[in-house]
Amino acid sequence: MFSHVFVGTDDLNKSRYFYDTVMPILGYGKCEYDTTKKRLLYISIDGVFGVTLPIDGKPASVGNGMTIGFKAQKTEDVDEWYSKGISSGGQDCEDPPGIRIGAKGMRMYLAYLRDPSGNKICATCFNVPQK
């Protein structure tokens, strides 16, 4: 849907440790660090996710009401993403990982985290069959 999405951080090292741990689970390549612009780039066939120091020199801030959702292929990927995210500096937010019923009864398995900078992110596996 989007070609790229960026979030801000004041600590690229903490962010890199966190995202280097969770992004490969969802199919993103190894971090490409742009030393000129001071940003981390995670690239997949679907697009680019970036983490950057704010270009205006002010402290990074978290979007109120904002969530960035990443697509997962399997429910096990969501669980691994969540577990490794917590162990690498992320914080739990919202309900525990599990099934949610979306629009038109679509069953989704998802988990929410806040990254080390406080950005809210989510991993979602769509169209989970009923057991």
TrEMBL record:
Organism: Paraphotobacterium marinum
Database matches in InterPro entries: Glyas_Bleomycin-R_OHBP_Dase, Glyas_Fos-R_dOase_dom, VOC_core
Record-annotated VOC domain positions: 1-126
PROSITE patterns per the UniProt record, alphabetical: VOC
Domain of life: Bacteria
Name of protein: Glyoxalase
